[in-house]
Amino acid sequence: MFITFEGIDGSGKSTQILLLREYLVKNGHKVVTLREPGGTELSEYIRAVLLNKKLEVSDISELLLFQAARADLVKTIVLPSLDQGRIVLSDRFFDSTTAYQGYGRGIDMEIIEKSNQIGSLGVLPDMTFYLNIERSVGIDRDKEKDRDRMELSGDEFYDRVIHGYDELAKNESRFITIDGNQDVKTIHALVVAEVEKLINK
Ligand SMILES: Nc1ncnc2c1ncn2[C@@H]1O[C@H](COP(=O)(O)OP(=O)(O)O)[C@@H](O)[C@H]1O
Ligand SMILES: [Mg+2]
What we know:
This protein is α/β, with parallel strands linked by helices. It is built from eight helices and five strands. The chain has a single domain (2-199), classed as P-loop containing nucleotide triphosphate hydrolases (Rossmann fold). Helix 1 crosses helix 8.
């Protein structure tokens, strides 16, 4: 089972993945948690490049670097873990590419979709949680944070990213949208209820 978490920085993805992992492990499941980009030696190198504030990265180069990192993660961790019957929880997956590089940067959607297929090796999440918050809430939650290259892309960029997520949520049946302004425990309970439904299907 493959479950992904989406939403802008500060929306609560990492927080909810930790809680869900704890819950699932307590209930006897084998769980693997990942973050994108990263999770393998190669992908962590690519992550460092992608988030480096000093680098200028063209839009298409950015897209291909994300997909290169993703392909390595899917091949070396996601697919083997799914084969072993583990539940894989990923902090971001290709919906982030659609939202950030597609809607945010404005790369043609056909290119985005084709590259998502290549980068994911055709692997599709069973369920995707979208934690929906406003940009200002995310910034308030992470005031002390040193912003990386992606996060320094500006307010209009983030408006487009959020619009992109909203469109995905409308069009993809695997998306579960949760109001990320609710408290951590309330969100966790909603997540658990949906995951239990999926497990019992
Ligand atoms: N529902 C919530 N309400 C208030 N604060 C939250 C909530 N979820 C997470 N936080 C806090 O907001 C910050 C960002 O959360 P995090 O889980 O790291 O988000 P993300 O991984 O999406 O960037 C953290 O300090 C976290 O403790
Ligand atoms: Mg996080």
